[in-house]
Structure formats: structure tokens, C-alpha cells
Amino acid sequence: MNAGVEGTALKTAAKEWGAARGVRIQVVELPYANLFEKEQLDLSSRTGAYDVMMLDDPWFPRMSENGGLAALPRDPDADFIPACLDVCRKPYRTGKYFALPYVGNAQLFFYRTDLFAKYHLTPPKTWDEVLAAAKTIGQGEKMYGYVMRAAAGNAVVADFMPLLWAFGGDVLDAGGKPACDSPAAVDALRFMLELGKYSPPGYAGFNADEVSAHLLQATAAMSINWPAWIAAMDDPAKSKVVGKIGFSPMPSGREPGVGELGSWLIAVSAASRHTADAFDFLYWATDAAQMKEAALRGNPPTRRSVFQAPDLIAKFRAFPAQLASLESARPRPRTPEWNEIENSFGIYLSQANAGAMDPAAAMRAASDAISKIVEGHEAATHP
Amino acid sequence: MKPRRIPEGFWWVFPSIAVLLALSVYPLIYAVKLSLADRRNFTRLVSDRLFLTAGAQTIVLTLAALVLEFALGLALAVLIDSLARGRAFFRTALLIPMLLPPVVAAVAWRLIYNPQFGVLNGTLRRIGVNTAHLTWTSGEASALASVILVDVWEWTPFLFLLLSAGLQSIPPEPMEAARVDGASAWQIFRDVTIPLLMPTILLALLLRAMDLVRIFDQIFILTQGGPGTATETVSLYIYRTAFRFSNFGYAAAMSFVLLAATMLFSRGLLRVMRSR
Fold first, then answer.
1. Residues of chain B found within 8 Å of residue A68, distances taken between Cβ atoms
2. Which residues of B touch A62 (CB under 8 A)?
3. How high is the ipTM of this complex?
4. What pLDDT band is residue A18 in, cutting at 50, 70 and 90?
């Protein structure tokens, strides 16, 4: 499992389950950067070293390839948020279930409510309003109006996807071919660079920690961020903006606003020698009572009933916004090649943001690179 | 006819041979097999822009870091060798960067380089420098230089250490003889010290060059190869291809190209040094 906030709750749950069932459990925690490779190596070599795995949802298409994960013995109930369940199925949305959603993450929009009030701005509903607000606040205050992350790889892609979708573009079309050199996609990137003018210099090298540091230090007024950072914003030990950050679903553009889904799933390895116990744990850990426990330990749930529990809403003020964002969230393209596509896409996006490439040229280059990856995969699977 | 006996010593070295075979020779053969499984692995290399960029950047980084580290290391070694007192202190103090694990050093530098909150820009701002455009590792143009600077900071002590030991092992007589003949300090350095130091220089450069070609950890932590591909190196790309994209064949092919390049480079270096 992941060594971090998300993993901590699962680790505690695993210990409790082990104590209740009298089963000895060994937990392996790995940093995010190494988690995928360890799990994927174990799945493809079928050693069954890990019975239950915690995986990030974009990895699911790759990991469920070639029978790596075991199919669930029964379908999950209807309390789960559909967007979270869809990514547990192979094929996407329609197929059998091979995992259950444990952590319900979708991007949220973070903004300074106090500054919005000061400049008589309404909470941003569209990206144009975001840009206008970034301008106003950037000029009026000694701070940056907006902050984003555009380091190559996952970071820049995550911050670009909501814009791309809002402009009506996508990375791949319905047939799995690259679509990122469409006029809509180029417009989305142009808009991102426009926002970049109100972002701190050097944002083309930023990751999530830099973005959050700017919000926490009150040196930037808005950003796209993940729910994992909500708690820090209201923690007086870390934050200069306690109670001043508002959370809302993604702003809209030509299309309704959509945040990127980043759910953590738990699944059972097909090579596991303790399948019955492993599935028992899977269902137990994701039932409503356990998920409420996990929510109290800081994990965003994947069940509507937990999001709507009044005692939890009283404790976590962002829950309504989180639920709204999750309900409409879109996953990253469901392809086993996503890691490689994201890498290429991220390189060109980052170069455009660093000013080294013109948006149209960057998108054309990204599209070329992605089509090579897609063709390479097709050639490998259907020689 | 006497049956051929296994020499007694064999069983003593057998465990090491077995470990070597299992952990080194077998994976090597497997990697060769893997890279050759698909002929396209090698043809793809030639047209892979990312690989070519990474290759060019690896060369730039290796040469720049090597020259800087050598020049600084030699200067420091000569300087400290000429000190009358405090040699031991400076020698130990200079080794500190090298003693840090590269990962720790890189994390520290990532914080130092942070454009807004880092100590580097913070200090510059204090003394009145406009740091608005000093983005270090986040800047397309400055990222590679920033990475090189970290490597120079961390590994100059290594060259200093080797060269310093080399200087101490030079017997004083040839220098005294040169001095008696009226040679200037610079002449002594150029015509006596350097030639006598050559075996050490050669060894030091070779060790450092081989290490630089496969540089990974600092860059992985500092920039992950970005922004864009500004600091992408071959070993970083190999890692990504194998462990993130699960394309082990192509990664193995790239590794062999890197190995061949390292060997050619080392041989070239040896030849240049010997011919002098």
C-alpha cells in the first residue's frame, strides 16, 4: 500500500481486521514512486507475494491486464459513487469488477474566500472568471493570483486535464487514437499559459508540494488541488490561511467543469493463496461502517452515505464540494499505456509552460508521440 | 586411468561463483535475450527523439561536470597540499558533501533551489538581487546547469581526495631538482607535478566519468528529468521505460547502448591520457 495519508487508514483497518478474524497480516508500505513498479512486477511474475494491493486508479487498466487481478465474487452495492465504481471494471464501466474503491479523490478548486469577498468577486463558476479573478487579486495584493504545477509528468497533466475537458478536448478519442492536437486542446493549452502569467515564476517545475506551499503561505490565491491537502489548509501549525480557503468543484468552460478522478482502489492478486480471506477483507474495509472510520482518519470516502453523514459534514466542511466533484469526476483515459502517454504528454505540456514551445506545436508533437505509443502497443499485442 | 578430480579449492570458491552466476551473469544473459526478443528495440532507438535528447544531455552533463570537478578538485588539492598548517582539518571538512547520501543531498538542494521559499533566492533577495527570474531547477534554460552544480558540489571532494593522495605520493626530489635548475612554480607544476600525477588523474577521471554517465538519484529527486526534457538523462529514461511503462526489452536495449558508450568513452579517455 501507499506510504501516506491514504495508506495509514488502510493499515489501521488491516490490523483491526486481522485481530478480529485471528489472521496474521503483514503490511508492506511503499512510497508512491515505487508502489506501481513493485505491484506490477509481482502481478506479471505471479508470485502472489501480496494478497491485497492498494492501487491508484490509472494503473488499473495495466494491472488488470492478462488476468493479474482476481474478479470480485459479488458486485458492490449501490451506495458507492458510480464514478468510483466504473474504474474498478474491466472493460471500463461495463465489465466485471476486479477492485473496490477505497479512497474517493477528485480534484477540487481551492480559492481564498476572504479575498474574493474583498474584491466583490463571486466564487468562480467558469475558467474565464478564474482568469479575471487571478488578474484582479494579482494586481490588488502582493501575491500571485493563481498557482499551478507544470512539472513534466503526472503534475502538469493533472492540472491540464480539467482545462482540456472544460474546453471540450481530450487526450484520446473514442477509438483510442490521440486527439490532443484538436483546436479545442490547443485553446485549452493557450488558456493554461494565460493563467500561467499570474502564477509564480518557475511553476513549470512545480509539483503538488510547491502549489500547496504557496496557498499555505498566502502567496497565491487559487489553485486546483487534491482533497488530501484540505486538512493542511485549516491546520494552524502549517497554514497562514486557516478558514480562508473555500473549496468548490471544477469551474466550467465550453463544457461543464470536470475534475480528474484519482481514486485509490483495493484489489486481490490473482496469484494470491488466501483469496477467501483477501476478499473478506476487501468487502469489510469498504463497508459503510469501516469507511466512516477511515474518513475520521482523514480518508475521503467513496460512499454517498458516508459523505452525507451529518456528523462527518460538521467535521469536514469540504465534504459537500468533494461529493459534488466526485459525482462528476472523470478518470484518466482507460488504457494500459497511460503511464507512457502521460509521460510524453507531460513533457510537451511542461515545455509549453516553460515557454520553450508554442502551444500548437507542443500539442502536435504530443499527438505524434502518443500515436507512436498507441501503435507500438497495438503492434506488441497483435503482431 | 585416473578419474579427473575436481581441485580441492573449487568448493571453497563455489559459493561465490554460484552467487555471481545467479545475480550477475544470468541477469545479463537474460537482458541480452530480452533486448533481442524484438528487433525493433534497436531500430526504435535511432528514431526515438526522447532517447537522443537524453543521450545528448547525458554527454553534456558528464563533460561539464567532469571538467569542473577536475579543475576544482585539482586546484583544491594543490592549494591544501601547499598549506603549512591545518591540512587535516580542510581535508576532512571538504569531504562532508561526499559523505551525505546522494538522495539526502538532492532533497536538501531541492529546498535550497525553491524559487520562492529556498535559501538561495532568499539570500540573494537579502543582498538586493532581483530573483524574479532565477528559477534554477524549474527553468528550462537553467535546470541542467543547476543539476550540474549539485553534482559538482557533491563530487568535487572525491576528485580532491584522490588527487590529494596522488600529490602526497609524489617524491619531493624531482621538484627540488627542477627548482635547483631554476624552473618557475608554474613550470614545475606543468612539467613535473602533472606528469607524475597522471596515473592518479587518469584513474580519478575514469571513475568519475563512469559514475556520471549513469547519474540518476540527484536528477530523479531534483527535477524528474524536467522541465520538459531539460534534464532527462539516459538512465532516467531507462528507468521509466522499464518500471513505469513495463517495456523491459526496450529498456534493456538502451542499457546496452549506454554500456557500449561508457566503454568507448573510457577507452577514449585512456588512450588520450596514455598518448601524452
1. none
2. 246
3. 0.76
4. very high
